[in-house]
Amino acid sequence: MNARSIGLVLYCGASLACSSKSNAAGDGGATTGPMLPAAQGAASLHVTVSTTAPAPFCLPGAHWVNVPSSTQGGQQTTASSKGALAVDGEAQMTVECSVKTSGSEFDVSATLKSPATSQNGGLTNPTIVLLTTTIAPDQSDAIGTLSVQDDPSVTTYTSRDCAFSVHPAAAGDQLGIAPGRIWASVKCPTLRDEQSSNTSDVCQIESGYFVLETCTQ
Questions:
Q1: Do 139 and 186 share a domain, yes or no?
Q2: Distance CA 17, CA 40 (A)
Q3: Domain identity same for 44 and 25
Q4: For the chain, what is the domain count?
Q5: Pairing of β 203-213 and β 142-149
Q6: Are 99 and 155 members of one domain?
Q7: Cα–Cα distance between 155 and 121 in angstroms, integer?
Q8: pLDDT tens, residue by residue, 38-84
Q9: Which residues pair with 8 in a beta bridge?
Q10: Residues of the chain with pLDDT under 50
Q11: Which DSSP string do the residues of 106-173 spell out, in sequence order?
């Protein structure tokens, strides 16, 4: 080993700067930051027949849409209890969400997807919830869009006139919003299959709550 090689070995040993394979990125020597926590969330939405449309019926029938899906049904997320949370990438769950500041408001969007099973344990159609709104802190009447698809509905039912709220309406309510997270209520007076020609098939989200955490901010 010549003098130049000896000098290089001593330099590398002192600074740990000569390895291009020892970092997490591997090729190229680029380093990577810490892994961000996975997005997580939950939703409970009560679908029932609309009370505003003339002579409506709700083809999926009255039921709770839950993410994570719950075989026993019923409401899982409330204004004061998150219930179980779906974690993106775990147990075949998908949680993609963004809660970003936009001036004095927040732009909120989310996709939640959960596998579902029947009461006898058989696989059914997955439950999917999509939502978007722009809402200010403590606002109770932000307009937004919400879509749901689950085993009772089979297809996608959408509302474009939902009212979102992060205003705590009672003692103990945990509703609120901050960069990267939101706990909110939602009501939709009309919810329908926009691809259907049956204008009498009109449901509503009578009551609903959702939680989103560790979202893009």
A1: yes
A2: 38
A3: no
A4: 2
A5: unpaired
A6: yes
A7: 22
A8: 999 999 999 999 998 887 899 999 999 999 998 888 999 999 999 99
A9: none
A10: 1-31
A11: EEEEEEEEEEEE-TTS-EEEEEEEEEEEEE-TT-S-EEEEEEEE-TTT-S-EEEEEEEEE-S--STT-
Can you point out the beta strands (E) in 17-104? 40-49, 63-67, 86-87, 94-102
Domain range for 26 = 1-33
Tokens of 67: 């993410």
8: amino acid identity, one letter: L
d(CA 189, CA 71): 26
| Alpha carbon distance, N-terminus to C-terminus of the chain | 54
% of the chain surpassing 70 pLDDT: 84
To the question of pTM greater than 0.70 for the whole model, the response is: yes
Residue 54: exposed, middle, or buried by beta-carbon count in 10 A (0-12, 13-18, 19+)?
exposed
How is residue 19 written in tokens? 């390895």
CB 77 within 8 A of CB 42: yes
Tokens representing residue 196 in the block:
């259907």
> Domain check: are 5 and 102 in the same one?
no
What CA–CA distance (Å, rounded) separates 93 from 216? 17
From the list 145, 132, 187, 191, the residue with the least C-alpha distance to 165 is 187
Do 87 and 120 lie in one domain? The reply is: yes
Residues 14, 47 share a domain: no
Quick one: 47 and 150 in the same domain? Answer: yes
Q: How many whole angstroms separate alpha carbon 15 and alpha carbon 97?
A: 41
Specify the DSSP class assigned to residue 179: T
- The two tokens of residue 16 are 């740990």
Q: Supply φ then ψ for residue 6, to 5 degrees.
A: -60, -40
Do 181 and 215 contact (CB within 8 A), yes or no? yes
